[in-house]
Amino acid sequence: LKKNIIKMLIIILYKKASAIVTNSSMSSKDLFKIIGLKIDTIFSPSYIIDKFKRKKSKKNIKIIIAVSRLSKEKNILFLLKAIKLVKNKNFVLKIIGDGDQKKDLNKFVSKNQLSKKVQFLDYKKNVKKYFLEADLFINTSYFEGFPNTVVESLKYNVPVICSKSHGGIFDIIKNNQYGYLFDLQKITNLSSLISKFLDNNSSFLKKTRYAKAHLKKFTIKNCILNYEKLFSRL
C-alpha cells in the first residue's frame, strides 16, 4: 500500500516540477517509465582527489574489507556465507560499521567457526587508513542509490566486487569494466569471485587501473558544471 501511494504521488507531483534529477542512469530510466518526462542524471560528487601512499603488506594474507551499515538491505550475511565457502585461507575480512544486525552476524561467525577470518570493527568516521591497507573491497547490498564507497575504493587502488544492486553501481563499474559484478541469486556467484581474486588478482588490478580516468565523472567540479547547465536552461 505504501509503495502504491508513493508511486501515485510521484505521478501527480513530479509533473509540476521544473526539473527532475536522479543520481544514476538506472534510476533515471526507471523514473521515466513511471512519469514519461525528461529526467536529468547528475552523479554524486563522490570522487575527491586525495594524496595517498598504499601500505605494503609483509604477510601473504590478503585483507578484504566491507564498509557498511549492518542492516538487512546491506546483505552482510550473504557475504559471510560466501566467505564460508572460500577454500583459500590466506585472507581476513574486516567489516567496518554498526547496525541492528551486528549481534546476529557475530553469532553466525561464531557458529560457523569464522572468528579467525572475520573481524567486526565499529563505525569509523574516516575509513581512509582501512582502504590503504585493503587488497579487496566487497559490496553486497540488495539496493543502493549511489554507492560512494565503491568510488572511494577505486580511488585508493582497491579492486572491487559488487552486487548488481540496481542504482549507480552500473555507472561506476559499467559492464564489469572497472570491477566485478555478481548476481545475488547464488552465494557461489560471490565466493567464486573471491577465490579467483585470492588465487590470481591480476585481472582485478588491471580493471582498477583502468578506472582512474573514468572516476573523473564523479568529481565535485563535474557535478557543479552539470547543475549549472541545468539551472541555466530553467
Structural notes for this entry:
With 234 residues, the chain is of the alpha/beta class. It has helices at 2-13, 25-35, 76-85, 102-111, 128-133, 148-155, 169-173, 187-199, 202-214, 220-233; strands spanning 21-22, 40-41, 62-67, 91-96, 118-121, 136-139, 160-163, 180-182. The strands form two sheets. A six-stranded parallel β-sheet has the order 5-4-3-6-7-8, sandwiched between helices. A two-stranded parallel ribbon has the order 1-2. Helix 3 (76-85) crosses helix 8. The longest helix has 14 residues, at 220-233.
Write the layout of secondary structure elements.
Elements: H1 2-13, E1 21-22, H2 25-35, E2 40-41, E3 62-67, H3 76-85, E4 91-96, H4 102-111, E5 118-121, H5 128-133, E6 136-139, H6 148-155, E7 160-163, H7 169-173, E8 180-182, H8 187-199, H9 202-214, H10 220-233
Parallel strand pairs: 1-2, 3-4, 3-6, 4-5, 6-7, 7-8
Helix pairs in contact: 3-8
